[in-house]
Structure formats: C-alpha cells, structure tokens
Amino acid sequence: MNAATEFDLGPLTWVKGEIDLALQRADEALGLFEASADPTQLKFSRTHVHQVHGALAIVGLDGVALITESTEVLLAGMEENRLSDGDASVAVLRQALNALRQYLDDLMTGEPNQPLRLLPALQSLAAARGLPDPHPSELFYPDLSLRPPKRAADAPMLDSGQLLHVLKSERMHFQKGLLSWLRKPAEAEVGRQIMCEAIAGIEAVQPTPVARSFWWISLALLESLADPKLAADPLARQLCSRIDAQIRRLLEGSSNVAERVLREALYFISLAPA
Q1: How far is residue 182's CA from residue 163's CA, in Å, rounded to a whole number?
Q2: With 90 as the cut, is the pLDDT of residue 92 above it?
Q3: What is the per-residue pLDDT for 4?
Q4: Distance, CA of 246 to CA of 208 (rounded, Å)
Q5: 204, 208, 214, 217 alpha-carbon torsion, rounded to 10°
Q6: Residue 153 — very low, low, confident or very high, per pLDDT cuts 50/70/90?
Q7: How many Å apart are CA 96 and CA 121, to the nearest integer?
Q8: Other Cβ atoms within 10 Å of 15 Cβ, number
Q9: How many helices (H) and strands (E) does the chain have?
Q10: Which of 22, 144, 206, 261 could cross-link to 51 by cystine, CB 3.0-4.6 Å?
C-alpha cells in the first residue's frame, strides 16, 4: 500500500460517526461562546476536539491530527485570554473544523489521504496564534516502508575497525563540504558535490536495504539541493546538519533515524525537478 495515496478506511468507518458528533459539538460550543462570551464553552469545545484528536491518532491519520492539535492549542489560548482578537480566532477555528470535516468526508468517498491539502487550515491556525507559517513538510506523510533498489554489487565486508575508519573519514569529508556549502556561496556547488561523495561512500558500506535507506534518501536530498530555490530554504540547512548528526550516531553504534527527518528529506526530493 502506498501511504501517500491509499488509506485503510475500515478503522475510520468505525469511528466516523463519533468524530462527526464531536466536531458538531465543538462547533456548537463555539457558537455558545460567541453568544455569551463564556470561556467555559471554549473548554467544552476543546474537550470535543481532543476526542477527535484521539480518534484520528488511533486510526493512523497522524498528519490530519496536526489540525486538531493546533486547534486545541488555539482554544486554550483563547480560554486563558492570551489572544487579542477572539472573533477572528473563532472564524479560524470554524474554518479548521469545517476543513477537517470535509477532508474526512472526502476520504470516505475514496479521495487519497494527502494531509497537505489541509495546509491552508494549519497556516491559519498558526497565524491566529501569532506564529509563522508551518513548513509544508509537516503535513507530508509519504510511504516510509519503501527500500532502495538492489544494487549491482554487494557492500564490501568490513570488520568493525575498518567500518569505523570509513565512517570517520567520510564524516570529515561531509563536514568539509557542508562548511563550503553554508559559508562560501562561490563554492556552494563544490561543497554540495563533496557532501554527495561522502554520503555515497557511507551508503556503499551499508549491508542491508534497511540500513541503506536513510543514506540513499540523503543522497537524493543532496542532489535535489542543486536547485538554488530548494537550497535557499532554511530547512534544507537544518536537514544537512541532521545528516551530519546521523553520521555521528552511526559512529556511536546507533542507526535509528527519526521519522520526521525522513519525511522532511523526502518532501524536498518531491519538489526537485525531474
């Protein structure tokens, strides 16, 4: 199953009625708040949104649950009187609830599960709290189960000492390229190529497809940063620093990679010209 386009409707079908009822009650509580200015109604609305949030997490709609999470935080800010324009916030909350309801209805009719369609709602919720726009990658949930294609030759058999030597050498190589890419605009392309070579060297000594995945994705990310527009995104710099941190973890014996790092890297790759 491709997580980017397909979704198992079974679990959602079981809880859809409860979600719809909770969304309706959250909206009704907002209406009562508008009529009475009673902050207790905001608490009631937040309670119902939290029920929806829990249901979305249970059925695996993690990206969609970012909307309910942000909605809860905005409601809490209003309840504690930390926001100046309550009327505008109520309008944003209503739009978010309607967008969420429509998204779930669309899923039930066979639309693909693409949380990025909820980006305008997430941006409006952030703006109502005085925050900058969230990065689109926050709502990008591709299929992370895919593995690199089989390579022509198996990875060389290295003992622990040899592997450690390779990783240390390639990390120094990567850091040299990263420094050029970040601090020397005239040498940015040279720095990017050096980083690519270092990651290719690390990927080449990974013994299994699972172990190769992050480095294979990282190599594609670095190739995508040949596009100046993508390279200018501040998140691209953060991702390159995280690649360096991942090399350090590999040197320390850990190959675990945070899912968010993979999602953000794949988002950049998805934007790269063919």
Answers
A1: 28
A2: yes
A3: 45
A4: 17
A5: 70
A6: confident
A7: 5
A8: 17
A9: 11, 0
A10: 22
Is residue 154 pLDDT above 80, yes or no?
Answer: no
Rounded CA separation 111/92 (Å) = 24
Q: What is the pLDDT of residues 14-26, one digit of tens each?
A: 999 999 999 999 9
For residue 185, what pLDDT is reported?
86
Distances (CA, A) of 226 to 81, 96, 204, 221: 47, 36, 22, 9
Provide the 8-state DSSP code for 59.
T
The model's pLDDT over 253-263, given as tens digits with 9 standing for 90+, comes to: 888 888 999 99
**What tokens does 107 get?**
């899923």
Largest CA distance in the chain: 72
Indicate if the alpha-carbon torsion angle 227, 229, 230, 233 is positive or negative.
Answer: positive
Mean pLDDT of 132-148: 89
Are 69 and 53 in contact by the 8 Å Cβ rule? The answer is: yes
CA atoms of 147 and 203, how far apart (whole Å):
13
Please count the CA atoms within 13 angstroms of the CA of 42 that sit on its side-chain side: 21
Give the tokens for residue 64: 């969609």
Determine contact, residues 114/47, Cβ cutoff 8 Å: no
Q: What is the pTM of this model?
A: 0.80
Torsion of CA 99, 46, 62, 56, to 10 degrees: -80
Angle, helix 188-204 to helix 209-224, in steps of 10 degrees: 170
- Six-digit token string for 96: 């978010």
Rounded-to-integer distance, Cα 16 and Cα 9, Å: 10
Q: Read off φ and ψ for residue 147, nearest 5 degrees.
A: -120, 160
